[in-house]
Amino acid sequence: MLQQMYPFWAAIVANLTAQLLKPVIRYIRTREWDWHMALESGGFPSSHTSTVAALTLAVGITDNFSSTLFAVTLMFSLIVAYDAANVRYYAGQNIRITQQLIKDIQILTQTRLDDPIYLTKVKEVLGHKWIEVFGGILLGLIIAGLMYFIR
């Protein structure tokens, strides 16, 4: 089973490993456990990029690095990595700016904006910094490489 579905399982293991590493890395940096990070997006390493990097390497190994399928997975991986570090990251920045503007307007105008839309809790960390993306890529490549040798 593992041999037939090696690209799929490499991607799954890379994703789960990245998600489980997030609270551990946070603990190393802050000395505080936050197990919720294992279920959230954002943080180091990027699980999106670890997943697609593992998938791409596994497809290259199994189907040849000159195959059409490898080309498709490589392009897919580049899009995911770009999206994680740019589109999703800046969407999170826009959320942060918008929330600060709402606070500033309330303070400056002495007006309480109590419409439910202004009270909606929105996650600010949607994407990744480039270092988090590169960490995810490296992790994905390591996982796919290790799984290739143990399959």
From TrEMBL:
Record-annotated membrane-spanning stretches: 65-85, 130-150
Pfam family membership, one: DUF212
Keywords: Membrane, Transmembrane, Transmembrane helix
Tree of life domain: Bacteria
Protein name as it appears in the record: Divergent PAP2 family protein
